[in-house]
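Hi U.,

Before I forget, here's the chain from the pilot set. I'm dumping it here mostly so it's searchable later in email.
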Amino acid sequence: MTSTPHTSDAAHTSDVPDTTDAPDTSDASATAGTAGTTGSPDLRAQLDSLTTEAFRPELAEIDRLSTLEIATLMNGEDAGVPGAVARQLPVIAAAIDAVAARMGRGGRLVYAGAGTAGRLGVLDASECPPTFNTDPAQVVGLIAGGPPAMVTSVEGAEDSAELARADLDALVLTAEDAVVGVSASGRTPYAIGAVEHARRLGALTIGLACNPGSALAAAADHGIEIVVGPELITGSTRLKAGTAQKLVLNMLSTITMIRLGKTYGNLMVDVRASNEKLRARSRRIVALATGATDEEIERALAGSGGEVKDAILSILAGVDAPTAARLLAENRGHLREALAAARG
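Structure:
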């Protein structure tokens, strides 16, 4: 699949002055290797074909409305996003099951995107270690242009499929890994390049876009297209499209972690009590899971070295800490399965 140039996901942040959230021409000729121009008829036609870039004449005088009226409009726009996600739930679920299978065999989850989409991937990846006690290398976020692109625009980074290939090669990607290309337009060369390269290497690939019939979705094993429609501010894909992407990434990581045994019911049990805040949270989690007394909880946590899963298993199964650790190891870290094994 050859990437089609488009710019709706250009690097953007609300805190750093730049103009990349608006339609521009930075990747108008990325695949041809020449510079785009603002007046390019081809680029204008491409923008006109994308729902995320569509102009809404009924909002042409939005700047004349009161602040409350604009806030009400935005809130109404956002209310439609969950419904758009809901229409893709079967596709999302299939992608999650495929990711969980790979990660269960030791693979990694890698997000790759540019601008807002890239930042959302980095954000989701960075939240996994504190939430699920994952190794930082287990869920990785790649953004076109590297860390500097998290806070400012890196010119031309999103235009380069070659940069995506280099970033993935630096991770030494394997066939057990899963790569998620994220792009509101579904045409960003960096995201498509990442998916195409990962697929050639045998990795699982997912394309997350917000336009129908996108090149990104077509390039991936699992194409997820959350069509949220034109934005309140023309081409500002950090709005509804960004919200939709965040919701889907939440699902991808959270449900995958549930499948990997990182929770017990809806409790975050795969945490270690390494500071006072986490110790307090750990005691509460053990209490909710077991109904044990404070003394029993403190004793179990002390015996497990602060490992919440081990402490819960020790209490519920009536086993010592070493036995709890062994049972969890034998059951791939799944507390419910380890508890069933302990009870015979």
